[in-house]
Amino acid sequence: DVKVTQSSRYLVKRTGEKVFLECVQDMDHENMFWYRQDPGLGLRLIYFSYDVKMKEKGDIPEGYSVSREKKERFSLILESASTNQTSMYLCASSPSGNEKLFFGSGTQLSVL
Amino acid sequence: DAKTTQPTSMDCAEGRAANLPCNHSTISGNEYVYWYRQIHSQGPQYIIHGLKNNETNEMASLIITEDRKSSTLILPHATLRDTAVYYCIARNTGGFKTIFGAGTRLFVKA
Q: What are B62-108's pLDDT values in tens digits?
């Protein structure tokens, strides 16, 4: 089975801190994604990557950046965390040419 | 991708079949119907997908109407662990964006 692992299940950070959320997948998938999920707003795509060092903005990229230096790892970076970035962050991966997504368990980030 | 419409919530008795409907009246010929579910505090989990034929796997069955304007996800013998939010998505091949709507919150009751 595909495994998508997110480094932290819960994270508490202070306003202004730089935050790194890490995601690793073990099935050699080309595509990786970062979503955030908020009550009433559903899942929204932040960034995605279709290859190493390649990245594309999703629907809500403001305040975020990403890094994909290795195929299996996709990092989401909050340069200066703000309280409105308190959310559940979900990482997903999919093979090239396949729209089936495999999700991690999520990281609940609280910014105080 | 076509818009999908699902009921907000549904109940089902444990051991009975759960039939979750989805309307996708504007679906185009090359859009697949995907179903995912999300158990509380976990990431969404892929269930099944289809284009026009009915599909079955170890988790569920997917029935797509002949005109493809609607579909039904069937969990044949629902258990308490099937309580979750179920998302129906119409998805074009190619591209990278999968749009999740609000889904149907299924409550399986003992």
A: 999 999 999 999 999 999 999 999 999 998 877 788 888 899 999 99
Do A56 and B96 lie within an 8 Å CB cutoff? Answer: yes
Is it the case that residue A83 has pLDDT exceeding 90? yes
B36 contacts chain A (CB < 8 A): yes
Distance, CA of A77 to CA of B89 (rounded, Å)? 28
Contacts of A68 (CB under 8 A, 6+ apart): A32, A49, A51, A52, A53, A54, A55, A74, A75
Which pLDDT tens digit goes with each residue over B17-36? 999 999 999 998 888 999 99
Residues A7 and A23 sit within 8 Å (Cβ to Cβ) = yes
Closest Cβ opposite residue A48 in set B42, B44, B96: B96
Indicate the DSSP class of residue A102: E
Take residue B6 and report the two structure tokens written for it. Answer: 């699902």
Q: Considering only CB atoms, which chain A residues are within 8 Å of B40?
A: none
* Contact in structure between B15 and B60 (CB atoms under 8 Å): no
What's the CA gap between A110 and A87, in Å, rounded? Answer: 7
CA-closest candidate to residue A18, choices A58, A56, A57, A65: A65
- State how beta strands B104-109 and B9-13 pair: parallel
Partners of B105 on chain A (C-beta within 8 Å) are none
